[in-house]
Amino acid sequence: MARVVVDVMLKPEILDPQGQAVQRALPRLGFDGITDVRQGKRFELELEGPVDDAALARIREMAESFLANTVIEDFTVRVEESAEGTTAGAAS
Amino acid sequence: MARVVVDVMLKPEILDPQGQAVQRALPRLGFDGITDVRQGKRFELELEGPVDDAALARIREMAESFLANTVIEDFTVRVEESAEGTTAGAAS
Question: Which domains does chain A possess?
Fold first, then answer.
């Protein structure tokens, strides 16, 4: 079982009200030094079978036609080596 | 200017109706072989100043108290080396 991650973010030229709301809230909450926040979506797909070039091409097609609205969003597809990130903050 | 990415995903034991809706739609759209989909949020934070341990600790605190609902969500914090992913699908 392999995991492929598709990140979908608004294009840089598209206004991101969610991200702006987060950014404006941060100083009030005591977090300074953050100049920009963008908020997007992360899809974790569990594949049966190997993650070869054909599978990745299929997922890219899927992301383009279905997961992202490519008029306003960019996406990236990548294979996740393990389920854990390097600096995982596993909250209780 | 450095970029830190905070990924927020529902905990594995929490039902994810958004992800399930995506997963159920995929076979109808001609995409087979995907056994599970989870959908979460991705925050891209632009920091002024260096991304040292202190900054990362601060961001982890921020993610825990503000970006994620740690009752139902897990988060990971990581520094993004460059703005581009390795398999970036820059859609038109």
Answer: 2-80 (3.30.1280.10)
- Torsion B12-B13-B16-B21 (CA) sign: positive
Q: Do B33 and A45 touch (CB under 8 A)?
A: no
pLDDT, one tens digit per residue, over A3-32 is 999 999 999 999 999 999 999 999 998 888
Residue B87: half-sphere exposure toward Cβ, Cα within 13 Å: 14
**Nearest CB neighbour to B44, from listed A9, A44, A60:** A9
Quote the CA–CA distance of A15 and A25 in Å, as a whole number: 17
Q: Alpha-carbon Rg of chain A, whole angstroms?
A: 16
Considering only residues 72 to 91 of chain B, which have any Cβ-Cβ distance to chain A shorter than 8 Å?
73-78, 85-91
Chain B CB contacts of A45 under 8 Å are: 34, 36-37
pLDDT at B10: 97
The stretch A30-41 carries a mean pLDDT of 94
Q: Are B37 and A45 in contact (CB under 8 A)?
A: yes
Helix (H), strand (E) counts: chain B: 2, 4
Q: Could you tell me whether strands A2-10 and B2-10 are parallel, antiparallel, or unpaired per DSSP bridges?
A: unpaired
